[in-house]
Batch of 4 targets.
Target 1
Amino acid sequence: MIQTGIIVKLIGGLYFVESSDSIFECKARGVFRKEGISPCVGDNVEFKDGVIEKILPRKNHIIRPPLANLDRLIFVVSVTEPAPNLLLLDKFIAVAEYQNIEPVIALTKTDLENCEELRDVYKKAGIDVYVIDYREKDPSAGIRELLKDRISAFTGNSGAGKSTLLNEVCGDFNILTGEISKKLGRGKHTTRHSELYKLPWGGYIADTPGFSTFETNKYSVIRKEELADCFREFERFSDGCKFRDCSHTKEKGCRVIQAVSEGDIPVSRHESYCQMYEEAKALKEWEL
């Protein structure tokens, strides 16, 4: 009998599929390899007798780590030690927007440095920002509610406090945080396999490896013509541009540039956009 379920774990070619509150260990049909696709964590699948027969249509898919059907991507960003890399953060927010994944920012180490300026940049951009202060009684209450009945992933630079936040959200996960090497700015914790953790109040979360500047294009490659749509704060201004094909980088009569000069769009966000636009212009056709 054909059953349907969601892949919650992948280890060494074995897929663990949750269906009707039970976990089934499955293998994938060889035909998937011939078709150039692979089942991945988060996929809804049809399976029979321990074999995945069909991957149901995906809402979205990121390549590294391989995850499908994400509702939210939560970026854990420390305000200091290490200092936030806004260009890298903006690149990943753009990827989330491109993939129709809701981006959310969780600011950590707010007891060490003021976070208001950073928070305001992204709130002005229309992105939900949660300030995590471990001096409060329940610092992750807002994040916990956000995860309910959704598939979410946490990501962030090593040392930003991602694993600490995960453990705060639900200590039963027992994800080791390790000691941070100040010299390298990296944490010792690494995620060795893809897995969704089922939440007792509904929904799933996935832990992902820390991201780096070298892996950005492995998530999604965005064409220069599509990039402005990945900066949601541009939308209400772009129709007012003088030229229909305005790149929003240097043209006279650009309403987006005017909004930057008037303080309606954060300068750092527009700078990230311009740098990403130049990088997208330089992409070769085979890279797309």
Target 2
Amino acid sequence: MPDHFPFNTSTDSQTVYQSYLQNGWVLFDTDSEIIEWIHHALPAARRCIEDPGNKGWFRHGNTWFAGVNVLENDHLGAVSNGSPITGEAIQFIRRWISSDVIDFDKAQVSVYYPGYPQKSDDESEAAFGYRERRDAAHVDGLLPVGNLRRRFLREHHEYILGVPMTSASAGASPFVAWRGSHHIVKQALSSILEQHPEGTWGDVDLTDIYQATRRDIFERCERVELPLKPGQTLVAHRLVLHGSAPWHANASADNDGRMICFFRPPNMTASEWLRAP
């Protein structure tokens, strides 16, 4: 099934949903309502990057501004007296994922710059190599804990909504996902978590199964680069393995770098996170 659908498409919405379930994401093309939202949100995102209090979000030799939950939007996505986020992607989320309820978290303002990634002082050679060769591929919600950075299920996102804010060429550290990987992740994590009471899932060490599952996905699933343009929207499955590619040679972006605002509403229970479609 295709993973990209035009705005105002006549394609049946269930077909779009089936594509989302099969691939692990769906892309919606240029939407005037999203462009209007960007008009209000981009200046606010720039202020987040310039804010001295957010200096700590610059990583990897200042080639990535991680900016987790720094955008000052409300629960409908509205920023700086602007309108809530609307458009076809939001209609899709309401119809198929969130039971007609939109309750956004504060968005991550993720910005990549030429030269990404540079090696951080506190980063091991293995971690840096994984970032270079495997796009720092990860599943959201499985957080590294403690000095040993063991992985535990600590956040239960409903979905990933990506809104590209700036123009960039296809090689400017595009979003990367592994097609169908969410099915493998669900099966693998279920095999471990279902052995424990749900109330204890956040304390189950998932490091070994998580690492083995990523290796399996790299062998079995197609890696897909998904460069995005302002006005488009990405809706990715909460369990899909994803990351960002290194900045390709000769890639370019405007002065803001390659910026995407990501919403990951943590509004599910652990059971819903694991068991929902």
Target 3
Amino acid sequence: MDFNYLAELLFPNVKETPEELEARFPERQLPEGAKVTRFAPSPTGFVHFGGLFPVTVGERLAHQSGGVFYLRIEDTDDKREVEGAAEALIKVLAHYGINFDEGAILDETGNISDKGIYGPYKQSQRGPLYHVYAKKLVSEGKAYPCFTTEEELEALNALDKKSEIKNKDWWNY
């Protein structure tokens, strides 16, 4: 199989190379031992302790080590997204003193915008970046398209659930 041909068929509009992307997004110049951490919530509702605790730990780790803490919004699940949840999340975290060095922020009009050179910081807008690497992997024969339909995936998932329930060792609970 001609993997380069397949890569061109799948990603005809991708002209940038991984090397060009890496030049556009250079390695951070941080002190030795500095940590880069992020919080990447889905905008599906309110902030709760299950999110507040890890975001606090990530922020403290980055800032105490001289690193960078950023916010990326994982907005790719349209079915579960709650309108205004991302904006509310940013406001609540600010209320609790969680400070992001870069990432998704609220601009002066209250809309989400990017702060920093490593964006976009909304997951739904990062596809073009990932396509560059996907094309490279396909061209090397390390990735390939999947032709499974949505219905076939649902049937496989249902089988897995039945098997999982049937094979559970209930006595250990």
Target 4
Amino acid sequence: MNDVDAQWKRFLTPEILRNNLISASIFITGFEILNNLIIERVKEAYTEFFEDKAQPGIKYKKDVLESNRSILYASLEWLREAQVISPDELKNFENIKNIRNSVVHEFPNILTNGLPSEFLERFKDIFSLIKKIEKWWVINFEIPCNPEFDDKEIVVDEVVPGIIISLSILLDVALGSEQEAKQYLDALNKNSDIQT
């Protein structure tokens, strides 16, 4: 079988095509969540309230935006300086971005030839960075601002941000077995029946 026939065979095999489509979509989704999280969490750290409006104050421009013309890279640099992420994790972000770009710009090729070999490694990096940044946010901003946590001991290792739970469910439903995927819908339906 020549290369062209092999590509057509992969393209026309439903399990392979679905897996490639779903995996690429999940990777792009994960990247966009990470990208947004990096920018928004740093911006929120500088949010001030003016009358009835919340927005980043002047200090945000000075401390963050002046370091780089790209809001994303300025925010990444701020997170690195604040020791939220390490220089190695900054490099991981670049590797993630490179895979994301190849998935987006070479999408037809991905459908027939599959994802880049380092896809799974980079997806783990996405998950790890989201978890680290969001956990930092919860511990340093959400918990201190919530009076329900006053005088309560917080076990850092037990903090699980909501976005991590959502991503885990997404992976189970999209890429897990039929049984794994169905358990969430069954639980939702059962909970809906109890409430009605």
